Structure formats: structure tokens, C-alpha cells
Amino acid sequence: MKERSKNPTTKMVAKERIGVLFLRAREAYHEHPDRSNRYVALALRIAMRQRVRMDREFRRQYCHHCFTFLVPGQNMRVRVHRSTVVVTCGICNKKMRYRVVRPHDRNN
Ligand SMILES: [Zn+2]
Description:
By secondary structure, this protein is of the alpha+beta class. 40% of the residues lie in helices and 16% in strands.
């Protein structure tokens, strides 16, 4: 098993890397969708190893069941049901539900 650093900057670096990986996933999607999925897998591994919580903008960009990188209008479907956003993965057809929060406390 790889070492897990006690240095707090490691988590910062991990978050930064996750951000970069999602950026790359987005860029790669049009030409190499499978590469995007690979980037998601790498980002998840970094998050798990360094025990960092992924930011919400990233958590919502992949399927939580099959870990496919999700692109609106391409491989995902978004529906609003009452006050819940239901995202359906176009690959495994499973659903993820997100509660809609009030606009002024959006940062959790
Ligand atoms: Zn899926």
C-alpha cells in the first residue's frame, strides 16, 4: 500500500489534481470518451487515498454507479421531480438524486 502523508498540503495537492483530471475528462470526451472515464477513475482513486471529499461540481460530473463521465445532452438525462434533481446515467440507466438547495446556501 502506498503511504498516506500526514502533511496537510497533500490534500490540497490532491484536490488540485482532481480538478485537473475533471478538466481533462471534459476536454477528452468528444474524441475519447473512454479516456474521460479513465480520468474519473484516477480522480476517485486520489480522493479515496488522500481521504478528501470531492467538490460538488466534480461529484456531479460522473455516474456514482458505473463511474462514467457524464456530459449533459450526451449520456445523461436530467429531470426535476418536486425539489429533487434526478440524473439518469445513459450508460447504466441508474439514477442519482440531488436535493435542490436554496440559492443563498449553495456552498455545501
Ligand atoms: Zn452509470
